[in-house]
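User: My collaborator sent over this chain with a note saying "see what the structure looks like." That's all I know about it. Can you take a look?
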Amino acid sequence: MGIERYGDRENLAVVAALLNDRAPFSTLNESGDIFFPPPPGPEIWTAIAPVSSKIGRGSLIGIEINCKYTHCIVYLCVYHDFLRIIIVFMSFSFRADTKVNRFRAHRMRIFTSLVEEILSRRSFCTILDVGGTHEYWRAFGDAIDWERVSVTLLNLSKTPEPDTESITQVIGDACDMSEFTDSSFDVVHSNSVIEHVGLWPQMEAMAREVRRVAQCYFVQTPSFWFPVEAHARFPFFHFLPEPFRVSLIMRRKLGYWARAEDIGEATRTAHSAILLHKRQMVHLFPDAEVVTEKVFGLTKSYIAIKKPR
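Assistant: Without extra context I'll predict from the sequence alone. Here is the result:
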């Protein structure tokens, strides 16, 4: 299945360091602080680290299951003094652009219904996908009527993948789409992009452009309040002070982010994703309905949807 082994020993060490009341960028040494029992299979990684915090002594057990389609990490802290188990962190995610990513598949169903509503009023639908990829539409576009739909992918650069009759690429800036006139497209689609364009003024600029170039739009972004940062895949990462976040990025690979070579690269990475909360999304897209996507009762992301009138 194309197994990928991340070997998250440092991740376990960082979590154990947090529980041990150490600085978040601490790591455990190799002289017996971490014990690795034989893994039960090539797709599963396990590790145990001792912890001793204010609420007692115990063991931190890390379990990671990683394969082509899924990535699951669970940290269980067993406190011996109190005979109780605490789930420190649990992350379960699908690969971004595979059919088993149930979150993106669900969003595409919502977006497809928006496209079908547009097609009920006209013979053809033009889509501008800001930050989109060919791979995304191959994975989730099965329900699209491609004989009546075209997609334009707008990115800062083109990929080597050739264009098709239905999907073409253009180079552009999400914050300044002046190459397109007002209402050039029937609908704008954007998935997890607006949090990457820069600070608040850049987010406002992208929102204005989205609302200008199409009468309908579908803009999704991860929620600031979800406990696992969507890009770093690390618990409470975005709640930490910036110096701690930069130090973590310099110490190890975090989710989609490679380990930084120096503090400059680490700082740029830390600034590359600024998460939003619902009131900000409502402000950016006042003429849309902002719906929430929830996981176990927690808000995972927001989607600003403006339907045809």
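A starting point for your reply to your collaborator: The helical segments are 9-19, 102-119, 134-140, 200-213, 242-251, 263-271, 278-284.
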